[in-house]
Sequence to fold (247 residues):
Amino acid sequence: MPIKVVVAKDAKEMSKKAAAVIAEVVRKRPHCVLGFATGSTPEGTYAELARMNKEEGLSFARVTTFNLDEYLGLDGDHDQSYRYFMNKNLFEKIDIRLWNTFVPLGVAADPGVGCIAYEQYIKAAGGVDLWLLGIGNNGHIAFNEPGSAPDSRTRIVALDKSTIEANSRFFKSADEVPRYALSAGIGTIKEARKIVLLASGPKKANAVKAAVEGPVTIECPASLLQDHPDTTFIVDAEAASKLSGEK
Ligand code: PGA
Fold:
């Protein structure tokens, strides 16, 4: 199935559309399994889900969640860890039970074994109904950098130089950005029954174009979603600006 593309006029509309898709899954299946992502792009979606929880009675009480990735070496109370991000931006604002939320463990006696366990937890939960993704300027999904295998599973990965630079905005300097992370693999992500990828702003336009209209190649990890049966990109007008509509 080609990737479906929904173009929103701006990031606000993109966030509302994404939250509506997630809410529909939760309403249909209150005990669903959701996959989440961190980064600047999904923040508006999480804010909208929190609003729906508060004002519209959208309950996450029976939902289980898995996050894509975590920095190796950062504990969940580090303010740049993805566990911390999820707690602050979403989990503390909704009625989800924290013990039903999973983020790869950045600090563990053996993080590699933790990656294997993470895959098993996902299986034990019944697989992911919907996984929300962002996209890197280099086309990465989660921390699957260009060159990642299409059948990769949760593992320890080295971050691309461009990713370290892009993420240094959250740290005092690029030197402080961890060099390694734990990341769900492309194979892990593609087992989700539904995938929704968000992109906003002009910096993402090339990656969106390559992912949707370019060849299927490990050089652009998001292009590997082209043969997934149910993937939708919800992008704002700037991120969509290089799409030709052909493919
Ligand atoms: P961003 O990150 O949402 O902060 O742009 C996306 C990503 O790197 O996957």
